[in-house]
Amino acid sequence: MGSKTFLTSYEQGVFKHDQNKRNGKIPCVEMRYLSMGMSNSYKIAIEEGANIVRIGTILFGNRIS
Q: Read out DSSP for 20-57?
């Protein structure tokens, strides 16, 4: 299984869980944001419904060891 396939499968699961919350299937839970994905997978995360992504490495480069 390639990394994109794994990420897509994982993120689809997260998105489905998020949609259940947004659609009122979980009482007393309000979800406005879905945060998933990082610099190496943000495009997939956006395709899967994320509205917050973490892209620090793209903006600032790798951390200094």
A: HHHTTSSTT------B---TTTHHHHHHTT-SB---HH
Query: pTM for the full model?
Result: 0.58
Domain residue limits, the chain: 3-60
Residue written as tokens 């951390």?
A: 63
- As a whole number of angstroms, the distance between CA 36 and CA 53 comes to 6
pLDDT in tens, 15-40: 676 666 666 666 776 778 888 888 98
Instruction: Tell me how far apart the alpha carbons of residues 16 and 49 are, in angstroms, rounded to a whole number.
Output: 10
Closest CA to 3 of 50, 32, 37: 37
Residue 11 burial (CB count, 10 A)? 21
